[in-house]
Amino acid sequence: MNKNSLAVFFLLLLLSVGIIIFDQGLIVLSIGHYLGEILKPFESAISNIRNFLFFWQDAFLNIKTLKESNIKLASENLELYGKLKNLSLLEEENSSLKEQLNLSNRGFDVKLAKIISRDYQNDRAFIIDKGTNDSVANGMAVISKGDTVIGRIVDAGYNTSKVQTILDTQTRIAAVTLNSRVFGLAHGLGSDIVFDLVAKNKNPEKGELVVSSGTDEIWPRGLIIGKIGKIKPMGNQVFNSAAIEALVNIKELMDVFVITSM
């Protein structure tokens, strides 16, 4: 290599070293800026994708949390409903036991019985969960709260019994109005009750209570049958009659009392 070539070589070498030593930062910054401008759209797209993924991740987590909260709330509501139902049943049971105690204080021996079967097309009969094994026998009076007549036992089995209600056409009760002391006969018409064989010179008061008189020696005295409704003059007939409005909806009864002795 001649001297001229060698000189050019060293000159270029020195120039390269100088650029590296003194201007490295500027070159790198320039390259970085240039690359940043090129990659800016990609960075924006990546940022949007990341935000989109984070949004749906949070949404799914919130949905999961909400679902778990709803399940927990539903479970708590069911538990609360169960407690309220048990409380209601307990109150009904306590009320029935209290009524049983009141009847006992009146001198009645009674059995509390639950209605286990009925014909929902009419209210003429139903089945209770007490029978001869519980000292229940045919002919015994069946009442509800408030000493209200419901019917009587007509078919006592060992563990269950059939009750013929006051609405049945075979039901006959010697009765008297509580205020005016008008005597007559209360009997069922299938879906209603009538107060019959009322003397024409006697005028029961509309709305007054009708109770069993006990003169038939079948039904205990003083049981409430209902109240006087519309009075029906019978023209030339010897007797008048009046409708009796029941105080108890037999369809709504859950339990009754059987008077086993007086």
Rg (C-alpha, Å)? 47 Å
**What count of structural domains?**
3
Helix/strand structural class: alpha+beta
Query: Low-confidence runs (pLDDT<50, min 5 residues)?
Result: none
What is the averaged pLDDT score? 77
State the helix count.
Answer: 1
- General form: elongated
Distance between the termini: 146 Å
Provide the helix percentage. 25-40%
Major sheet characteristics: 6 strands, antiparallel, barrel
Total count of strands:
12
Helices and strands, in order, run as HEEEEEEEEEEEE
Give, in spatial order, the strands making up the sheet with the most strands: 1-2-5-4-3-12
Strand residue percentage:
25-35%
Write up what this structure looks like.
With 262 residues, this protein is α+β, with helices and mostly antiparallel strands. The chain has one helix and twelve strands, in the order H-E-E-E-E-E-E-E-E-E-E-E-E. The chain has one helix at 3-105, and strands spanning 109-118, 125-128, 141-144, 148-156, 161-165, 172-177, 183-188, 193-199, 209-212, 224-232, 239-245, 255-261. Strand 7 (183-188) and strand 8 (193-199) form a beta hairpin. The model has no long low-confidence stretch (mean pLDDT 77).
